[in-house]
Design a protein that fits this description.
The chain has 233 residues and is mostly beta strands. The chain is built from 2 helices and 17 strands. It has a single domain, classed as Exo-inulinase, domain 1 (Jelly Rolls, Sandwich), CATH 2.60.120.560. The strands form 2 sheets. Strands 1, 3, 4, 6, 11, 12, 13, 14, 15 and 17 form a 10-stranded mixed sheet that branches. Strands 2-5-16-7-8-9-10 form a 7-stranded antiparallel sheet, with no helix packed on it. A hairpin with a 4-residue loop joins strand 7 and strand 8.
């Protein structure tokens, strides 16, 4: 292995954020017992086995709906959680807007989550998708700079397929989202999946709501636990 490759690997390892610990000013967003501090459709969201659980059966949904954190907005932060996904698609909304409070419809930045289909690796897990907005901002393995005119300039720092190998299918994964200024980074199981540098001032959100998604489509179950937030300056 060349010295250059060794240096790149070392830099990547140093860039990986570790898990948040209790002595770092971390806020626990889920008490492990009930949905205190969260609000969503009670027919879809509950607590099972100590986890926030979103479930959709055979009755199809007409729109994406969300479980919304009620205790403030997020701006500059580190958020970490563990998730397990069986069927369909989900995601973590941040710096987002509550578009319809009655239907729990949210739009904004999303750290995407999905599961495998037909034996293939997860297609969307780790990407940055702007719900009700500009669509996919960065595919897995991309560092995308969005210029002031809205043009996207992606750079491929890793192969999507290689990163997908670090994502467990229908099992627990660790997600970390870091948002500081206009830089948005998504990590799964310690691996950087995407990074967005959003310079489109009129559309780049600096703060907003935090929420979990249930997506229209086939039956699904998504679970979240160990949800921790650390505010950054």
């Amino acid at each position: 292995m060349s010295a250059r490759c060794c240096l790149m690997i070392l830099c990547a390892m140093l860039a990986m954020p570790g898990r948040l610990s209790a002595d770092e000013g971390v806020k626990e967003l889920f008490n492990g017992k009930d949905l205190t501090g969260w609000k969503g459709n009670p027919e879809l969201w509950s607590v099972k086995d100590g986890c926030i659980t979103g479930t959709v059966g055979n009755v199809p949904l007409k729109f994406n709906t969300f479980l919304v954190w009620q205790e403030g907005e997020v701006a500059n932060f580190e958020l970490e959680l563990d998730y397990k996904m069986v069927g369909n698609n989900s995601g973590v909304q941040y710096r987002s807007k509550l578009i319809d409070a009655e239907k729990f419809i949210v739009g904004g930045y999303q750290a995407d989550i999905d599961t495998s289909k037909d034996g293939k690796p997860p297609r969307y897990s780790g990407i940055n998708y702007e719900e009700k907005g500009r669509g996919i901002l960065a595919e897995r393995g991309q560092r995308t700079t969005i210029s002031s005119d809205g043009k996207k300039h992606p750079e491929q720092f890793a192969a999507s397929e290689d990163l997908a190998k670090h994502i467990k299918v229908e099992d627990w994964n660790h997600y970390k989202i870091v948002a500081k200024g206009n830089v948005l980074s998504h990590y799964i199981n310690g691996q950087l999946m995407t990074e967005v540098i959003d310079n489109q001032t009129e559309k780049a959100a600096t703060k907003g709501v935090l929420a979990f998604q249930i997506h229209v489509g086939p039956p699904m179950v998504v679970q979240f636990k160990n949800v921790r937030l650390k505010e950054l300056k």
